[in-house]
């Protein structure tokens, strides 16, 4: 059956009937005359293509490219560290025990969005806070801990002012649909 599907994907059912007929009448017919399958592959070409692909992908995943004559070795750009983002896909079972189900695809997209948010916002810690179901859109809420920064705008701050990341401003909430 595997051979039929591989070599005759659009006619597999018809070929199965043909094989069935040939098996039932094998004493009067030769099966080799009807089903002709050629499975010749040029393995040298296939291996050369796979090798070229592997070499090209090696450089995409961080390996240094060889430096040609006359070129200088460029320093790789530094990637900023991403803060801690819990794995929502692993936590999905706990959500299901609580009666909350998002679905794997939605959780995966939410996980990727939270990692991007952590990188863009510079949050040291980010967690999923909740989901608000609305009429037009559903809104996802993420709670982040941002590092406190010196917010000098040249303005005089009130006496009870607390900078970002401290006191009542310890958490920052991001909402998106």
Can you offer a commentary on this structure?
The chain is α+β, with helices and mostly antiparallel strands and 177 residues long. The chain has two domains: 1-78, no CATH class; 88-153 and 162-176, no CATH class. It has five helices and three strands, in the order αααααβββ. It has helices at 2-7, 12-24, 43-60, 88-97, 104-121; strands at residues 125-133, 138-145, 171-176. The chain has a three-stranded antiparallel β-sheet, covered by helices on one side. Strand 1 (125-133) and strand 2 (138-145) form a beta hairpin. It is elongated, with a radius of gyration of 30 Å. The mean pLDDT is 77.
Residue windows where pLDDT falls under 50 for at least 5 positions = none
| Gap between N and C termini | 48 Å
The total count of strands amounts to 3
Profile the largest sheet: 3 strands, antiparallel
Tally of individual helices: 5
Oligomer: single chain
Order of helices and strands: HHHHHEEE
Please tell me how large the radius of gyration is.
Answer: 30 Å
Helix content: 25-40%
Structural class: alpha+beta
* Basic shape: elongated
């Amino acid at each position: 059956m595997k051979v039929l599907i591989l070599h005759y994907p659009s006619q597999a059912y018809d070929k199965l009937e043909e094989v069935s007929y040939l098996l039932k009448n094998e004493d009067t017919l030769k099966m080799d005359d009807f089903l002709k399958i050629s499975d010749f592959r040029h393995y040298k070409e296939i291996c050369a293509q796979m090798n070229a692909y592997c070499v090209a992908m090696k450089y995409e995943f961080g390996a240094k490219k060889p430096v040609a004559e006359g070129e200088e070795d460029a320093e790789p750009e530094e990637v900023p560290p991403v803060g801690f983002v819990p794995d929502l896909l692993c936590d999905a079972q706990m959500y299901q025990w609580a009666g909350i189900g998002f679905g794997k695809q939605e959780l995966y997209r939410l996980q990727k969005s939270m990692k991007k948010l952590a990188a863009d916002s510079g949050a040291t810690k980010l967690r999923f806070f909740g989901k608000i179901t609305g009429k037009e859109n559903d809104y996802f809420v993420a709670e982040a801990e941002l590092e406190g920064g010196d917010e000098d705008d040249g303005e005089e701050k009130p006496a009870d002012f607390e900078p970002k990341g401290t006191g009542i401003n310890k958490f920052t909430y991001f909402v998106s649909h």
